[in-house]
């Protein structure tokens, strides 16, 4: 059930090939833009850069527009090309992935909004280091998930899924610290709450990156691994490798 | 570009009809379950009912499983039936809708988790009334969106979209009140924060209900109205009605 880039070049219709390649590269382009949105949003927060925050909010419209465009191309492919097997999985994976990328864009936009609110209300006495740290972590997950998509790389997708537990731990430890701080300094609650929402948004970005990684495994292996634990997924991948080796030795 | 239930009965293949009817009814079944999850989660919170909360968390697995099953049937329909036009839109709308329903289920599960945490840490001195109120509001949105789906009812879908602004206002007013309360009574911050996350989850449920409503309009009208303001959507619907009347009078 494995596919690779070569498999996609064996189509009778050259035009069809180009269309499939097109949605894949459009998705990666959208992904690159969204990854930058997360980076810029966290930068704007940490640096108190309202100009950058406004830019992030403006760019969110471009991200939404990209989703609509890619989805439309996918719908056309489904209607006219009637793809099957791995081609169909690619189209479905792209449709699902645009939805997660768009939601990552939304979270970046919410973070930028927090930057703007904090510029009005006064900065938070705490939480920027935690936001920077968690931000770097989940941005890397998004990047790795997109690389896994670009290279049909299931081990990398699995690695992204394993990161999510660490992100959740980091998130919980950061919010606990901020709650303790708010109890000691209640006058800063309103400001610190802005950071709390930012941390929540970043944690969600990690969830969406995990979803992207799951689609890569679906795309390559034909297995829907949503709600499957990473250790179980690893078994599935190994089993598949063994089958492949058996296949090639006979 | 309009479809109605009759249109779906004119297929050459009776089996294909049955399959389309099947995914639609499975989706509505999943929707009913998810709607109940939201209700039960909020009930468990307000009544401090940990048994009910545990049930909600257990049922979340069933919701996830339903999503996988419906998505698999949809994929099979795409691969074997190669649907076009309104049939294709139905399948795509169902795939998108299962994703939002599943995420509503996740939010219900998070609310149930808050119930369990509050049972351990002690109840919050504030916020239950707000959670009940917001919970009723968004649950009604989910219900209305599902009814719109069941009846291909675009005016009802539009009404759901209009509710979302009200939900956002209600959410913001409730969180502001809780922030003020925490500043006055910092010892309760940890408990009140649990309610803050619940309100956030409920606000997200409203967003997902809006997404469902958008899919109904896409399904019936063939127009992708994501990121379109309700007033603009209303114009699209009216324009479509006028076209229909012109069409029938010639």
Automatic annotation (TrEMBL), chains A, B:
The record's section on Gene3D superfamilies has: Phosphate transport system protein phou homolog 2, domain 2 (1.20.58.220)
Its main subcellular localisation, reduced to a broad class, is cytoplasm
The terms describing its cellular component in GO are:
cytoplasm
Out of the domains of life, which is the source? Answer: Bacteria
Q: Which GO terms describe its biological process?
A: intracellular phosphate ion homeostasis; negative regulation of phosphate metabolic process; phosphate ion transport
Q: Which InterPro entries match?
A: PhoU, PhoU-like_sf, PhoU_dom
SUPFAM superfamilies from the UniProt entry: PhoU-like
Report the residue ranges that make up the PhoU domain in this protein. 27-114, 132-216
Subcellular location(s) of the protein:
Cytoplasm
Q: How does it assemble?
A: Homodimer.
Q: Which family does it belong to?
A: Belongs to the PhoU family.
Q: What is this protein called?
A: Phosphate-specific transport system accessory protein PhoU
Q: Which organism is it from?
A: Marinospirillum celere
